[in-house]
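## retry 2 of 3
previous attempt timed out at serialization; input unchanged, resubmitting
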Amino acid sequence: MKFSFWPAPMQDFDTVLDLCRHAEATGWDGIWFADHFMPNAEDTSTPWPECFTTLSALAVSIPRIRIGSLVAGNTYRHPAVLAKMAATIDHFSGGRFVLGLGAGWQENEHHQYGIPFYDVAERLARLDEACAVIKSLYSEPKSDFAGRFYQLDDASLEPKPLQRPMPLLIGGGGEKVTLKIAARWADEWNVWGTPDTLRHKVGVLTDHCARIDRDPASIHKSAQALLFMSEDRAWLEQRRQTPMQMATMIGTPEEIAAIIDDYAAAGVDEMIIPDFTLGQGDAKKAAMDTFMRVVAGR
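## retry succeeded, writing output
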């Protein structure tokens, strides 16, 4: 299994760069960065750097491991423009970029910036067309596309990404539409969830793949959950008793290793660890190191 690091996007760039350099130096396989413009909260004054300019800086500062967006909101940029941005970062990185793409969900940033939000069905339909646009621009010398939402007219995209193909990751767990889009277009797929959630979702994705005669093993599968790791069992029990909106992994390093085994058995190829719950400063790096040494076995 691969293990990747996800720094919280509200941190200043010097902190993010320091953490990502530490991740690279200590054996992590990848770095992911969220594509949002502000917190999903009533108070949106927290500093929140933009995703793709940050990834561009990381691409030239972190020389070894994969980097990617987790995930780009499709509503924020025309897919041809996004494809151009991602291909450029792939060159900056020497062929290590992953374009993560989702339908878009955070309503407050659409409202504040005057970006049309649409309903769920239209956002998903736009995502499906966007995948077709991006794949065509990356594979064809010139592309024509006459969709409901997007149009290309003898469009070129040069230079192509260094990777052939550059991975397109689809994020989301909607079983009727999102996983169907992933089965059709994705090189990689990502979702939040527990091992049981992933076991079920991978099964749904496999069924969608079967309907179009695609090998589900050709889709790299990743997942993430908030990590609460400690030797303090009283502290861990408090975390277990606290309701969480997101999937969590709670336990000692040895217990977390067993949970990771469950993810692997569910079909997960890459586990992404957000740093949101790992503490600050040296404590965060120590938690990262314990995870890689004890849990990942490196």
